Amino acid sequence: MLGEQRLIRFTEENYGKQITKVNDRIYHFLGFDHSNAVAIIGDTSVILVDTLDSDGCAEEMKAELLKITDKPVRTIIYTHGHPDHRGGAGAFRETAEEIIAFLPQKPILKHYDRLNGILAKRGTYQHGYGLTDEEAICQGIGIREGKETGKGRYDFINPTTSYSDKVVERIIDGVRIRLVSAIGESDDQIYIWLEDDRVICTGDNYYGCWPNLYAIRGTQYRDIATWIDSLDEILSYDSAALLPGHTKPLIGNELIREQVGTFRDAIEFVLLTTLGCMNRGMTMSEAVEHVKLPMRFADKDYLGEYYGTVEWSVRSIFTGYLGWFDGNPAKLMPVSDREINKVLLEMIGEEKLLVKIRECMEKEEYQLALQLLELTENNDLNKEALLMRAKQMTSANARHYLIASAKEI
C-alpha cells in the first residue's frame, strides 16, 4: 500500500466529526477543525480549552455547544500558542472575559524574527497551504485547517492572564483546575488536570501518531528529553480520560497507560538509540540508517509516521546535541555543493546520468532520482520525481512539502 493510501485510510478512520461526552460537564470536540477543543461546564459558564483554528469552524462548534448548554463561554485556556489552537477564539469574543495562557519556559533566540520570511514559506509548504484537498488529504494530526477549506480565518484574542509559574491552582466558576507548564512540542505547552473528574487535557504533548520532534518548517531544537519528562508527569495522574489537542480522546486508565506509555517509550528509544550511535562515532547519515523502531513500536498505528518521522527526529537529535558537524573530516571545510556537483557531472556525463535517473524512476526509486537530479537541471524530471515521491509518503508534512516544491517549478 502506498503511503498516500495509508494516509487516506488513517484520515478516514480517525478524523470524523465527533463529540465525546466524558461526563455531565466535560465534552471533547474532534473533527470540527484541524485541532480539538474541550468544553468544561461550570456553575454559570463554560470554560473552553483551546478554540480550534478558524472562526468559521469555531462557530460550528459553538452551535453544537449551545445544544448541550445555554451557558456562555466566559473563560478560554490556551494549551499553547500555536495558531491552530487559538484562531477560533474570535467566535467567543462577545462573552469571553478571561483568556489564560502560559509564557514560554525557554526564551526564543534573539533575532529569530529575522527569519519570518523563510519560516512563513516553509510553514506554508509543511502545512499544505494553497494545495487542493486532493493534494493535501489532511494535516497529519487532523483534518485541514478551516482557513484552508473556506471556513473562516484566524481570529485571535490575546491572553488577559499570562503565567510563568510551573503550577497554577485555580477554582474557575466552581471548577477546580490545575494548570501545569510542561515543555514538549512547544516551550509554552501546558496540561490541565481536573482532579474531581479525573480528566487530563494534554494539548500537543500527546497525539495519536509519530510526533513532530522536529518540524520541517524550521524550529529551535525541541528538547526531547524534557518532553519525555512531561509525558512522565502526565502518566503520573490517575486519569480516567485523556483529551488531546489532536486525534481521538483516550477513555479509561488502562488505555491511557498503554497508549501514552508506549508513545513515551518509543520517543525515549529513538532519543537514547540516536545518542548511542553518536557516541560510537557514527555520522548523521549512519545514525539515520541505524535507528529504526522495533516491531513492538512499529506495529502501532498510533505511532505511524503520519505527521513527524523517525528520520527527522534522529537528525534533530544529532544537531541538537552535537551541532552540524558529524565528525567526518571530509565535511569539515567542504567545497560548495555547486562545485562538487559540477565535478561529478563532468565525470559521469549528463547523458549517462539521465539514463540512470530514468532507470531509478522506472524502479520507483524516486528519492534516489531526486538526489541524482541535484547534479543537473531537468525541471520536467524533477517535478515528476517530486510528485511521485509525495505519493510514497505517509507523513502529511513530507507529502505537502514535496508537492508544493513541485508546483513551484
TrEMBL record:
<dbReference type="GO" id="GO:0046983">
    <property type="term" value="F:protein dimerization activity"/>
</dbReference>
<dbReference type="Pfam" id="PF00753">
    <property type="entry name" value="Lactamase_B"/>
</dbReference>
<dbReference type="Pfam" id="PF14863">
    <property type="entry name" value="Alkyl_sulf_dimr"/>
</dbReference>
<dbReference type="InterPro" id="IPR036866">
    <property type="entry name" value="RibonucZ/Hydroxyglut_hydro"/>
</dbReference>
<dbReference type="GO" id="GO:0018741">
    <property type="term" value="F:linear primary-alkylsulfatase activity"/>
</dbReference>
<protein>
    <submittedName>
        <fullName>Metallo-beta-lactamase</fullName>
    </submittedName>
</protein>
<dbReference type="InterPro" id="IPR044097">
    <property type="entry name" value="Bds1/SdsA1_MBL-fold"/>
</dbReference>
<dbReference type="GO" id="GO:0018909">
    <property type="term" value="P:dodecyl sulfate metabolic process"/>
</dbReference>
<feature type="domain" description="Metallo-beta-lactamase">
    <location>
        <begin position="34"/>
        <end position="246"/>
    </location>
</feature>
<dbReference type="InterPro" id="IPR052195">
    <property type="entry name" value="Bact_Alkyl/Aryl-Sulfatase"/>
</dbReference>
<dbReference type="InterPro" id="IPR001279">
    <property type="entry name" value="Metallo-B-lactamas"/>
</dbReference>
<dbReference type="InterPro" id="IPR038536">
    <property type="entry name" value="Alkyl/aryl-sulf_dimr_sf"/>
</dbReference>
<dbReference type="InterPro" id="IPR029228">
    <property type="entry name" value="Alkyl_sulf_dimr"/>
</dbReference>
